[in-house]
Design goal:
16 strands; globular; 2,3-Dihydroxybiphenyl 1,2-Dioxygenase, domain 1; 259 residues
Length: 259
């Protein structure tokens, strides 16, 4: 099945601070009422709890990745066949039909009917990938293959890569191209940051990655604003210079550039 990353939704406790961080710091441009077009949604959920059976639920929709597919009916049929709970997205969440569900790592995922052009790509920046933390990488890869027909591909590392394992039980790529774009499925590696000399551990908690024209300019702006930045250089993906930073709400963010 043809698919793409439609958008990323992140929690934003302070809309003004988030707007400055993403708009000026990362250079993504001006923000609208709820974020940066349809590619990046900033959401400040209401303080209330929901309950399903005997379990309490976190605020729905606060943080998720939306995946556009060319046949949403097929995805819903596969979810029903696997007895995986899903709910229809409210009409105002997407321009087309969509459903929310949870993957095996309890990451909130939206599947939406594909529209054109893909909102996740623009003239100056685009969502390169979304990293999803899961306890069982192979189970999660099977979920995306079974439910949405998303195929696993090779991880393309540089010749001199950083200190991380490419064991398929620990790391998998569901690619959209030959530059490691798409979905990254990873099991948390607590010693990752220490071994690589980073202040941030990108294997924990998941993160979106934004590809920009000048990652070093982003790094300068962020550091000038007093923010802690880990400059990884070209260490994990061939031809991609990566940096990491926390946004004002504590979301891990990667910014990268093709080099």
């Amino acid at each position: 099945m043809t698919w793409s990353i439609h958008r990323v939704s992140l929690l934003a406790h302070d809309a003004a601070a988030a707007g400055r961080f993403f708009g000026v710091g990362l250079g993504l441009g001006g923000a609208g009422a709820d974020g940066f077009g349809t590619r990046l949604r900033l959401h400040n959920p209401r303080r209330h709890l929901a309950r399903a059976a005997a379990e309490l639920l976190a605020p729905v929709g606060a943080r998720h990745v939306a995946i556009a597919v060319d046949d949403l009916h097929r995805v819903v049929t596969a979810l029903d066949r696997a007895a995986i709970t899903h709910v229809a997205a409210p009409a105002h969440d997407f321009a087309a039909d969509a459903v929310y569900t949870l993957d095996p790592g309890l990451n909130l995922i939206a599947f939406c009917q594909r529209g054109t052009p893909s909102p996740a790509r623009g003239p100056d920046w685009f969502i390169h990938h979304v990293n999803l933390e899961v306890p069982d990488v192979r189970e999660a890869v099977g979920f995306y293959a079974e439910i949405a027909g998303i195929e696993e591909g090779p991880w393309r590392a540089p010749p001199e890569r950083g200190d991380f394992s490419m064991d398929p039980a620990l790391l998998a790529s569901l690619p959209l191209g030959h530059d490691n774009s798409g979905l990254h499925i990873v099991r948390a590696d607590p010693g990752f940051a220490l071994r690589n000399g980073f202040a941030h551990n990108p294997t924990i908690g998941g993160h979106p990655a934004f590809c920009v024209p000048d990652v070093l300019a982003v790094k300068r702006r962020l550091r000038d604003a007093g923010m802690l930045v880990s400059d990884a250089g070209v260490y994990a993906m061939a031809g991609m210079h990566q940096i990491y930073v926390f946004d004002p709400s504590g979301n891990m963010i990667e910014v990268n550039q093709r080099v």
